[in-house]
Amino acid sequence: MAVIRKLTLRINQETQIDSPDIGFNFKFLSVVEDSRCPEGVDCIWEGNARLQLQMSLTKTNNNLEIFELNTNLEPQSIRIEDYEIKILDLIPKPKVDLKIERENYMATFTVTNLKIVTDQSDFIEN
């Protein structure tokens, strides 16, 4: 399995993924829930953030689909054709007595082509 792209998006930021087989637009819509344990606090559970994303296939003109991914619960990834989109990180991390403004969230994802098999280590493109 080879990672073909690593990307970081702000809320409402969109990117296009193109390959010979498929093309799709991918947009980070919002953070629906953020119950992650604040920095510097001892929590029983690390918490979870739930993100809402929008995707549309560009080569087949499919309708928009909205889906959710989680930082610590399932699902943490979604499969689209032969590609997997997986969340790696969401920043900033929560802090005690500090509200995170919506526009400050940034999420990092990988887009992996599941058909590619390589003997070399995974390739990450920034």
Question: What would your notes on this structure say?
Answer:
Strand 2 (14-18) and strand 3 (23-34) form a beta hairpin. The protein has strands at residues 2-10, 14-18, 23-34, 49-57, 65-70, 77-80, 83-91, 106-113. The protein has 126 residues and is mainly β. Helix content is 0%, strand content 49%. The chain has a single domain (2-113), classed as Tick-borne Encephalitis virus Glycoprotein, domain 1. The model is unreliable at 117-123 (pLDDT under 50). A 4-stranded antiparallel sheet has the order 1-8-7-6, with no helix packed on it. A 4-stranded antiparallel sheet has the order 2-3-4-5, with no helix packed on it. It is elongated. The two termini are 17 Å apart.
Summarize the structure.
With 126 residues, the chain is mainly beta. Helix content is 0%, strand content 49%. It has one domain: Tick-borne Encephalitis virus Glycoprotein, domain 1, CATH 2.60.98.
Task: Name its key features.
single chain, 126 residues, mainly beta, Tick-borne Encephalitis virus Glycoprotein, domain 1, 4-stranded antiparallel sheet, 8 strands, 0% helix, elongated
